[in-house]
Design goal:
The chain has 191 residues and is mostly beta strands. It is built from one helix and eight strands. Strand 4 and strand 5 form a beta hairpin.
Length: 191
């Protein structure tokens, strides 16, 4: 009986050792493809060898014309570092009568947000948002004197330009005055 029990014990130990040995054999390695730097849809693959962020000067001119007569030409210059959006806010508060002696104020001026990315081919992707408002000249269309008319203009655009390249990226007509508003931008690489 003792010999039968030893034989059963030996069989269990050998079977367990065999199963344990099978688990400890090195696994077959699984081939994993290398991770690639995949650009977002609609963009160009970034230059992974570049270490220093790119800096550019973005010149914007917002012009207002009535026919062939130039009414205004407002220049703006922004120095933008790649990966850090630049924001410009400039303007005044215009008093708006509420009736009687009370007055409220409305912001009037320019608001520009700009972000620049260098593409592999050396061009710049410029994301630009402009809001511009101003007090219209002349009598109010309502016929009520001393009520300012605030006109506004907004454009949100994505441009691709080379250094030194200039483009007129938006032209619009004011429905009330008939004035034409044009926005022009130039990108220049900073050394």
């Amino acid at each position: 009986m003792r010999w039968t029990l030893s034989l059963i014990t030996l069989t269990v130990v050998v079977a367990f050792a065999g199963a344990l040995g099978a688990q400890q054999q090195p696994a077959t390695p699984i081939a994993v493809p290398p991770v690639q730097n995949v650009p977002a849809p609609g963009t160009t693959k970034p230059d992974v060898n570049r270490q220093v962020p790119t800096a550019v000067k973005v010149d914007i001119v917002l012009s207002r014309m009535n026919g062939s007569k130039s009414l205004s030409s407002l220049p703006y210059t922004l120095n933008v570092t790649e990966g850090n959006a630049t924001h410009l806010r400039v303007g005044s508060q215009v008093p708006i009568p509420n009736g009687g002696p009370s007055v409220s104020y409305q912001n009037v001026g320019s608001s520009i947000d700009c972000d620049v990315r260098l593409l592999v081919d050396g061009r710049y992707r410029v994301a630009l948002t402009m809001d511009d408002s101003s007090v219209a000249e002349g009598p109010a269309p309502s016929g009520i004197p001393n009520l300012p008319v605030i006109r506004s203009y907004r454009v949100d655009n994505l441009l691709v330009l080379r250094s030194g390249e200039t483009t007129t990226f938006n032209v619009a007509t004011d429905k009330v005055s008939g004035d034409t508003i044009a926005a022009k931008v130039t990108v220049t690489a900073l050394k």
